Structure formats: structure tokens, C-alpha cells
Amino acid sequence: SIAGGVGSALADLLAGYPVYVPGTLVIKATMAFLVSLVPLRAARREESRPRLGFMLAAPLAELVMVAGYYLYEAAIVGEGFAAAFAGVPGNAVQGIAGAAGAYLLIELLGRTEFFRIYGIHGFARRKAN
Predict the structure, then answer these.
(1) Which end of the chain is less enclosed by CB atoms within 10 A, N or C?
(2) 116-125, Cβ contacts within 8 angstroms, sequence gap of 24 or more
(3) Which domains does the chain have, with CATH numbers?
(4) Distance CA 21, CA 2 (A)
């Protein structure tokens, strides 16, 4: 969670958006925590369905991102609530694209030995006998 927040905050800093660094740190770390929590809990159960867990956690995390940036821009950056609303559609598209890309990556890596090698349970595809 921390790595996701710090990495994204550094990207904002290096891209010339220092005003967003604190908000990005908190928002992205919270998103990473939410997305990791649900599949990990699902993977501990015998009837594990981590892909389903990811599909439930990803929209929640993206909602945190959209709402988080909206509130951050309105209250902290000082754009006001009406002006900050202009960023909501772009953040929503970013969230949808990110979640879809992550799911695609999980599916592709599930066809390799990646999850087995790194001890990540529940995401690897079972081989047909």
C-alpha cells in the first residue's frame, strides 16, 4: 500500500504537480490497501475466488480515487466543489482503464508460472488433466 502511494506521489512531484503529492500519497495508498485486502482474504479460504475478490475490490478502490481527488481538489487545492467536479469524468475513465488493465495482467500472468514462483495463491490457472 505504501509503495503504491509513494510511487504515485513521486510521479506527481516529478511531473510538476507538487500540490497533488500529499493527496496522491493518501488516495493511492488507500486504493492499494483496498484492492489487496479483498483478494488476500478470499485466497485464505478454501473456496477461494480471488478474481471475484479483485472484481469487487477494484470498483471500490476506483470510487475512493474519484471521490478522493474530487474532495482534495475542492477543499485542499481550493478549486471549489463545482470546479473540482470537472475532473470527475477523467478520473473515472482513468480508474476504469486501470482496473481493466490490472485484470488483464492478472489473467495473462495466471497463464504463466509467475504466481506459483512468487507464492501468490489462487490466481494461477489450474491445468486441465
Answers:
(1) C
(2) 120/43, 121/43, 121/48, 121/50, 122/39, 122/42, 122/43, 122/48, 122/49, 122/50, 123/39, 123/43, 123/50, 123/51
(3) 2-117 (1.10.1760.20)
(4) 13
How far is 50 from 36, CA to CA, in rounded Å?
10
**pLDDT tens profile 14-40:** 999 999 999 999 999 999 888 887 766
Model pLDDT, residue 120: 72
Extract the C-alpha cell encoding 13: 512531484
Q: Are 66 and 88 in contact (CB under 8 A)?
A: yes
> CA-based angle 60:62:65, to the nearest 5?
115
Q: pTM for the whole thing?
A: 0.81
